[in-house]
Amino acid sequence: MKYYKSVIFTKTKLESFFRYTDEFQIFPLQHDALENVKRYKHYPVIIEFKIEEKEWVTPKSDFSFAGDLYNKDAHELLATAMTKLDKIINLINLFSTHLFFRYEDTDGFWTIPATSEKSDEQIRLIEHSDFLYKFFFIKNFTYQCLIDGLTENIESNFNQMEYVDHNIYYSQDPNYDYNTLTPIKFPDFIFYGLNGYFALSEIEKKVIDTTIKYASICMKNLERETTIGILSAFTSIESLMNHYYKDFKPENCKECGQSRYAISRRYTEFLLNFVGESDELKKEYKRLYSFRSKIVHTGFSFITENLWHELDEEQSDEEVIKKLQIMMINKKLIINYLALTVLGKRDKHHVQE
Predict the structure, then answer these.
(1) Which residue from 6, 15, 164, 23 is spatially nearest to 97, judged by alpha carbons?
(2) Which superkingdom, per the lineage (predicted)?
(3) Where in the sequence is the domain holding 47, given as residue range(s)?
């Protein structure tokens, strides 16, 4: 068993620490160098996490052609750490309304070199763009490395995460990084969900990792590529549904041989069981499935994902509400599935005629 330290980012400032048993913890990166940076929107966060032997990754790619520059052990460690890191980031994003992320590539981009070291007058005198790379660096500061264990006594430097009632957190004006001035908070239900996740068998965890990954992709793409983000949410929902019903053998019609239940009905019943149950919600879930079909089969896309559009304020708000509603249902579905697992209340309710 090993422990690893890395740096991830948020768009809203993290001012406290969060620790889940000996699995992982996050806390703000504090360094004098950051005090000299005036203009930035990605807040660096330290993440420390456990890596078990069974999680070790051996990459298929052969980089031995690099000669002395190639270190097989270091290559395998980095591959293992980044694989585990992505799973934990996705897991945090499942519960949080704030996006946690890492730089997944070092591709550069053309930009105006308006660094924090330049004065406003110096910025006005810039004559051309420069090509910069995405990379976080502080001289003599070590990260992306093995550590002895999770940092102890972290509470001496940071306050513990503030927890909010999950109904309020998700339903009453949830903050999806719209207000970056309010510090990050977590829902109080997070420990039930995490307990459920880490109690899963290795086989089931692989399935749940996939559903959580698609839920995280939804968050990442919700603004710029809304339709892709929402399709990811539907993929997440349906992958979990198919896993849940994997042993269910529907009865076929004796006359035509077709299944005696519709996929749309199973979809509705699944959401009723794990997200919420009422006559109004049943109607809403049916509309949700119809909306999913509209995207898949007609090529519908969200108009508000375009930088300029002709929707009035009311129509624009309707699209915003719709995308937030779908993302929220996706989150609640997985969280409740995990929480009910650890509480021993995940009874199966198969659709029957």
Answers:
(1) 164
(2) Bacteria
(3) 2-106+134-161
